[in-house]
């Protein structure tokens, strides 16, 4: 299998090569389309590949670079869009037979931002049905696989994006995160995954179930690329009344200022969750890295109460809202796990929902007050490494509240920024992530901590293990 070196180049390096006329966006897209087509049968990470559209956009980008007039610092960088997100002219299928091939009439805000900056859309990526779980398989698209080990899941719900990024297809790929859906797949595939502050990147449609907990973002192989992507995508949109006001901040400025003198709270049992021993040790080792960088790290214990009793009504109640929108004759074609959770949610009352919202407000207040003393919270991303692809989500063997998304969901409920960074590998050779959680709306501080850790942990791409796995296909 061709493993063209250019497919592993970071976004920041790509545009430097474009500016020097050492590499053309057209040549890069040809290499990306070839690699995507070769790996798709094994990874099953694409819903669609638009090779012709990508090549046309690459020619336009090439012309701009030849004139010295790029649209942005990311002009000509290829990416993809998760198939929960509208792209004008493409269908939005959500991994479900309950949708159809009707093309979207307009872009989501993040797609508009990408295209205005000259990024090239290579296609759409897989998601579990309606993004409902932290694994990526769906009735419509089948099972997406992890490039580190094809017998394992890349996580979810942005699993198509994580599989592609980890396999050297695009420097970063779009994802979104309503309960961990950027951070979990990033952890399972050895990537950098920032969930920005809620509202930092406008979203649309903004009235969908879970709209008040979802953040848009990317899954990348470097912190600098993540910061550049946030520069490109951050900002309000009139279609999203919750989006934060415009902020002229350049997220690459101050990125290398380090964490010396910071107070960092370490919570291996965040929310009274018990991670596997290997995960705990890798997160503890990350804490030692931060101490070596000059931070003061303190074990702060579980910090918050278990989430299930307070927040299950929000989760299954929102699924029930989606279920009510689907014709009854199509219910038999739904993911059985999604259908079971949604049908259980039909019994949720308005009083149940109101109590969950009250608990959500209290959790946000408590963690904001905690951050008055601490600059950063360090915790695991997931209790385990990537599970096998046949894992049944929210089953007795893999319950959502103790195995699926227990460490990541709190930051969706509070809206504060949080990121996954690679912590190392298990003995079985599967990646593990650490979670870096910042104060409300302090995305720049989370990025700064990410960058400091990235420089100290010795994790570099491409990882030989992934290259060997994919070369053997």
Could you characterize the architecture of this molecule?
Helix content is 37%, strand content 13%. The chain contains 15 helices and 13 strands. The strands form three sheets. The protein has an eight-stranded mixed β-sheet, with helices on both faces. It has a three-stranded mixed β-sheet with strand order 1-3-2. A hairpin with a 5-residue loop joins strand 12 and strand 13 (431-437). The longest helix has 21 residues, at 350-370. The protein is globular and about 60 Å long. The mean pLDDT is 96.
Largest sheet: spatial strand order: 6-8-7-12-13-11-9-10
Structural class determined from secondary elements: alpha+beta
Distance between the termini: 7 Å
Low-confidence stretches: none
Summarize the structure.
The protein is α+β, with helices and mostly antiparallel strands and 473 residues long. 37% of the residues lie in helices and 13% in strands.
Strand and helix layout:
Elements: H1 11-19, H2 25-43, E1 46-49, H3 51-67, E2 78-82, H4 109-116, E3 120-125, E4 137-138, E5 142-143, H5 159-166, E6 172-177, H6 183-189, E7 192-195, E8 215-220, H7 223-233, E9 263-266, H8 277-292, E10 296-299, H9 308-324, H10 336-345, H11 350-370, E11 376-380, H12 400-404, H13 409-414, E12 418-425, E13 431-437, H14 443-457, H15 464-471
Parallel strand pairs: 2-3, 9-10, 9-11
Antiparallel strand pairs: 1-3, 4-5, 6-8, 7-8, 7-12, 11-13, 12-13
Keywords, please?
13 strands; three-stranded mixed sheet; alpha+beta; 473 residues
């Amino acid at each position: 299998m061709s493993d063209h070196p250019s497919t592993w180049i970071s976004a920041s390096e790509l545009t430097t090569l474009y500016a020097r006329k050492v590499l053309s966006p057209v040549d890069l897209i040809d290499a990306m389309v070839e690699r995507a087509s070769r790996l798709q049968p094994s990874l099953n990470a694409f819903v669609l590949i638009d090779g012709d559209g990508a090549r046309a956009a690459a020619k336009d980008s090439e012309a701009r670079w030849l004139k010295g007039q790029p649209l942005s610092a990311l002009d000509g960088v290829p990416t993809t869009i998760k198939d929960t997100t509208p792209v004008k002219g493409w269908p939005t299928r959500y991994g479900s037979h309950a949708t159809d091939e009707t093309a979207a009439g307009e872009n989501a805000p993040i797609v508009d931002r990408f295209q205005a900056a000259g990024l090239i859309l290579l296609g759409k990526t897989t998601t579990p049905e309606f993004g409902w779980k932290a694994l990526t398989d769906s009735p419509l698209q089948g099972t997406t696989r992890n490039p580190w080990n094809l017998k394992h899941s890349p996580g979810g719900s942005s699993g198509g994006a994580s599989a592609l990024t980890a396999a050297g297809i695009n420097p970063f790929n779009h994802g979104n995160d309503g309960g961990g859906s950027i951070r979990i797949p990033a952890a399972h595939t050895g990537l950098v995954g920032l969930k920005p502050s809620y509202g930092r990147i406008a979203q649309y449609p903004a009235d969908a179930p879970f709209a008040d907990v979802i953040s848009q973002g990317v899954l990348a192989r470097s912190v600098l690329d993540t910061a550049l992507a946030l520069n490109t995508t951050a900002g309000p949109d009139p279609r999203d009344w919750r989006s934060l006001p415009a902020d002229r901040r350049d997220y690459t400025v101050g990125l290398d200022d380090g964490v010396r003198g910071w107070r960092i709270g370490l919570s291996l049992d965040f929310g009274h969750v018990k991670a596997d021993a290997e995960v705990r040790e890798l997160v503890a080792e990350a804490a030692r890295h931060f101490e070596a960088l000059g931070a003061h790290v303190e074990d702060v214990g579980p910090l918050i109460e278990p989430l299930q009793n307070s927040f299950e009504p929000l989760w299954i109640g929102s699924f029930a809202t989606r279920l009510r929108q689907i014709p009854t004759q199509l219910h038999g074609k739904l993911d059985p796990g999604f259908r079971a959770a949604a049908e259980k949610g039909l019994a949720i009352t308005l009083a149940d929902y109101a109590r969950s919202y009250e608990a959500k407000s209290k959790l946000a207040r408590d963690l904001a007050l905690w951050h008055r003393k601490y600059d950063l919270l360090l915790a695991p991303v997931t209790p385990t490494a990537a599970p096998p692809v046949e894992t049944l989500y929210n089953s007795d063997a893999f319950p959502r509240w103790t195995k699926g998304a227990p460490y990541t969901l709190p930051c969706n409920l509070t809206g504060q920024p949080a990121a996954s960074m690679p912590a190392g590998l298990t003995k079985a050779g599967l990646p593990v992530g650490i979670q870096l959680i910042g104060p409300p709306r302090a995305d720049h501080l989370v990025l700064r901590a990410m960058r400091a850790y990235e420089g100290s942990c010795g994790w570099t791409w491409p990882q030989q293990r992934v290259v060997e796995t994919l070369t053997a296909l």
